[in-house]
Amino acid sequence: MVIGLKWWDKKVSEKRNRPSWETYFMDITFLVAKRSTCLRRTVGALIVKDKRILSTGYNGAPTGIKHCIETGCLREKLNVPSGERHELCRGIHAEQNAIIQAAYHGASIKDATLFCTNMPCSICAKMIINAGMKKVYYHSGYADSMSEEMFTEAGVDLIKFDTG
User: Does the annotation count 95 as an active-site position?
Assistant: First the structure.
């Protein structure tokens, strides 16, 4: 006979080690990234407002379009460096997908916070700024210095966050 403990059956220590909200949301972005269909990089994004998740996104092809895992990667075949020639990619960035999903479902992301496994590129930075988001947490960098400059100029807080 298998006996499983339910979460409510476990004795909870008064001094349990709960993750911060930032760690909690960043951890979720790494789970979202597992849905990525990009052959070069797996990225996840989460848009949060008032400690509530409004939308998620991962990098991959638009709905109804074959993914790179099926067709191969043109940018890889052409040896295009990371952060360059985005127009050659059939995929949409995780941040773009999260913004699109929020719009599609009618969720306002003005004054929201973006959590992302990687620092947004300059194209995504422009969208984040114009969407009215005020803070971006990211885990790893990205080869696009223009995005950091734009975030600074627009007054968007850019925070490198290490979950380790």
Answer: yes
- Taking a C-beta distance cutoff of 8 angstroms, is the pair 110, 135 a contact? no
φ and ψ at 11, to 5 degrees? -70, 125
pTM: 0.83
Q: Which residue has the tokens 């380790």?
A: 164
Tokens for 101?
Answer: 């999903």
Distance CA 66, CA 119 (A): 26
Active-site residue, from 14, 87, 95, 153? 95
pLDDT tens digits for 10-57? Answer: 444 445 788 999 999 999 999 999 999 888 889 999 999 999 999 999
Look at residue 164 in the predicted model and tell me its pLDDT. Answer: 60
DSSP per-residue codes, the chain: ------GGGSPPPTT--PPPHHHHHHHHHHHHHTT---SS---EEEEEETTEEEEEEESBPPTTS--HHHH--HHHHTTPPTTS-GGG-SSB-HHHHHHHHHHHTT---TT-EEEEEE---HHHHHHHHHTT--EEEEEE--S-HHHHHHHHHHT-EEEE----
